[in-house]
């Protein structure tokens, strides 16, 4: 019998259940991953939001860091949201250090530089609508279009927009994105596609501009008033925000299509 697509959710810390629901709403099977043996059984993995320093430590305590890095470099599709984006990044601009002065580590694989808690105190948590052009081509499944499973409060806002949209038009509805002490992406490698960006107030953008890093053809420093908040490269997808908390399903749907080689 055809085995259903199985997506693991790294379940060491963070919003595991919400991702599992989103994956199941897209018609795939979701399983928790805490051990290397469980990782071996999945086709793809989600690294959820939470606290990247804690998840980093726990992957090493649970002897998962090595197997995770191996599977990522062997081509396993991975979607990281928020802390998960940090864990996928090859570089952190401002890594936290522990009491012994050791900098936090990442699993890596995605040729980006992220800045943690980048949006600053006043906007540590905020919501905004994002243009997400890649979703305009998506053929959305009925399961996704019909899903109303999560967060009644958030859906109360989203529902009128969704109700107005026809099945064909819904993919051009902007992504309502929730940012919770979120990172942003301030450098992308040549293989990395920016899927969505936020516009910063000029004052917020200023300190990170003109850091003197030379531009070359391999890498691009993101300057000015925009910062990338959704990126992908080959089998890896990352968002600064949390689509799993708003009932938004199109990002998980995109990930499933990436796993299937359809996007
Ligand atoms: N919501 C989140 O995942 C927050 C990420 C957190 N600021 C970190 O550095 O890990």
From TrEMBL:
PROSITE patterns: GATASE_TYPE_1 (PS51273), PDXT_SNO_1 (PS01236), PDXT_SNO_2 (PS51130). Pathway: Cofactor biosynthesis; pyridoxal 5'-phosphate biosynthesis. SUPFAM superfamilies: Class I glutamine amidotransferase-like. Keywords: Glutamine amidotransferase, Hydrolase, Lyase, Pyridoxal phosphate. It comes from the Bacteria. GO terms for cellular component: cytosol; glutaminase complex. The keyword Transmembrane helix does not apply. The keyword Transmembrane helix does not apply. L-glutamine binds at residues 50-52, 116, 180-181. It holds the Pfam family SNO. It catalyses: aldehydo-D-ribose 5-phosphate + D-glyceraldehyde 3-phosphate + L-glutamine = pyridoxal 5'-phosphate + L-glutamate + phosphate + 3 H2O + H(+); L-glutamine + H2O = L-glutamate + NH4(+). Its EC number is 4.3.3.6, 3.5.1.2. In the presence of PdxS, forms a dodecamer of heterodimers. Only shows activity in the heterodimer. NCBIfam families: PLP_synth_Pdx2. Catalyzes the hydrolysis of glutamine to glutamate and ammonia as part of the biosynthesis of pyridoxal 5'-phosphate. The resulting ammonia molecule is channeled to the active site of PdxS. Belongs to the glutaminase PdxT/SNO family. This is Pyridoxal 5'-phosphate synthase subunit PdxT. It comes from Arthrobacter terrae. The gene is pdxT.
């Amino acid at each position: 019998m055809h085995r259903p697509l199985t997506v693991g959710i790294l379940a060491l810390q963070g919003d595991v259940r919400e991702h599992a629901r989103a994956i199941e709403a897209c018609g795939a099977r979701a399983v928790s991953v805490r051990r290397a043996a469980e990782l071996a059984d999945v086709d793809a993995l989600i690294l959820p939001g939470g606290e990247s320093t804690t998840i980093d430590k726990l992957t090493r305590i649970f002897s998962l860091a090595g197997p995770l890095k191996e599977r990522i470099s062997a081509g396993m599709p991975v979607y990281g949201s928020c802390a998960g984006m940090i864990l996928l990044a090859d570089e952190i601009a401002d890594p936290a250090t522990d009491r012994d002065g050791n900098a936090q580590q990442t699993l890596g694989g995605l040729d980006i530089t992220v800045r943690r808690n980048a949006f600053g105190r006043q906007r540590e948590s905020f919501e905004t609508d994002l243009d997400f052009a890649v979703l305009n081509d998506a053929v959305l499944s009925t399961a996704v279009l019909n899903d109303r499973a999560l967060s009644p409060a958030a859906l109360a806002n989203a529902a009128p927009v969704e109700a107005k949209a026809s099945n064909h038009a819904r993919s051009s509805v902007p992504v309502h994105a929730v940012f919770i002490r979120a990172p942003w992406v301030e450098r992308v490698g040549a293989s990395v596609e920016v899927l969505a960006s936020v516009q910063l107030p000029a004052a917020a953008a200023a300190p990170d501009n003109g850091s003197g890093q030379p531009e070359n053809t391999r890498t691009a420093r993101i300057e000015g008033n925009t910062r990338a908040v959704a990126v992908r490269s080959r089998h890896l997808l990352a968002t600064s925000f949390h689509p799993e908390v708003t009932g938004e399903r199109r990002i998980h749907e995109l990930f499933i299509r990436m796993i299937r080689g359809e996007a």
